[in-house]
Design brief:
It contains twelve helices and ten strands. The chain has 269 residues and is of the alpha/beta class. It has two domains: 149 residues, 3-Layer(aba) Sandwich (Rossmann fold), CATH 3.40.50.1860; 107 residues, Rossmann fold (3-Layer(aba) Sandwich), CATH 3.40.50. The strands form two sheets. A six-stranded parallel sheet has the order 4-3-1-2-9-10, sandwiched between helices. A four-stranded parallel sheet has the order 6-5-7-8. Helix 3 links the parallel strand 3 and strand 4. The protein is globular and about 50 Å long.
């Protein structure tokens, strides 16, 4: 059994966790999110680097973590070199799934739905230039969808009319494939399909990340799945805010085989 730490600024990384867990339920999982500093797109880079390094290294040492996944596009583009210099464990990051989307699109018109920070970053343009030169690519930054995903896991209803307004600029295009360029957005896949049915394919990085983790850790099963069902492995959840109303979120976490949230003592931003 290995221990895998998955980190994000919010609950979006749970979409990545679900893909990894689906492929490798035999391992222990630590899910940590820095909601005291959410959203990361609004942080100055030195602050973001300091927070991620502190939280990830602390939890890695405390739980003897074997591999780290940074399930946040913003953090991945900024912090990965610093983490890899500080940790001996493998560190896996995320990037928008532009390459598979470009390959899959039949109209060769692709939409990239992400946070404004990801839309503006040079690495997104570099991915488009490298992998989607034969496509017409439309970029759309939507912070509100991040908030909707957070609220959904906390038991709130998703406003489909508001979501339809967000994607309205794309209705006159021939987009048939949408890149979900934020780890929060796969949590809204069903709702996005409802308000933007012309998109035949909604592509995220979760499956590719899970495959990468499996390749790094190996595929051997060193524990019976029945032991998981008997509570043999404890998957833990940590956060950094001092919020105390987590009943609906804890319900969602338990359904994903994760513990109720535990508070990390980190200076509030």
């Amino acid at each position: 059994m290995k221990t895998i730490l998955i980190f994000d600024s919010g609950v979006g990384g749970l979409s990545v966790y679900q893909e990894i867990y689906r492929q490798m339920p035999q391992h222990q999982y630590i899910y940590a999110f820095d909601d005291a500093a959410f959203p990361y797109g609004e942080l100055e880079e030195p602050v973001l680097i300091e927070r991620v390094l502190h939280i990830v290294t602390s939890l890695s040492n405390q739980h003897a973590v074997d591999l780290v996944v940074i399930a946040c596009n913003t953090a991945s583009t900024i912090v990965l070199p610093h983490l890899r210099a500080s940790l001996t464990q493998p560190v896996v990051g995320v990037v928008p799934a532009i390459k598979p989307a470009a390959q899959m699109s039949q109209t060769k018109v692709v939409g990239v739905l992400a946070t404004p920070a990801t839309v503006k970053r040079q690495y997104t343009q570099s991915l488009i230039a490298e992998f989607a030169t034969d496509c017409e690519v439309h970029l759309l930054g939507a912070t509100r969808l991040v908030e909707m995903a957070e609220m959904k896991l906390r038991g709130h209803r998703v406003d489909l009319n508001e979501m339809a307004e967000i994607v309205n600029p794309w209705l006159s295009t021939q987009i048939d494939t949408v890149v979900l360029g934020c780890t929060h957005f796969p949590l809204l896949k069903q709702e996005i399909s409802q308000v933007f049915p012309q998109a035949r394919f909604l592509i995220d990085s979760g499956s590719a990340i899970a495959s990468r983790v499996q390749a790094l850790l190996g595929t051997e099963l060193d524990i019976e799945v029945t032991e998981l069902e008997q509570g043999g492995i404890k998957n833990l959840t940590y956060h950094t805010s001092d919020k105390s109303d987590h009943q609906a979120l804890n319900d969602s976490l338990r359904a994903m085989q994760l513990s109720n949230v535990n508070c990390l003592h980190y200076p509030r931003s």
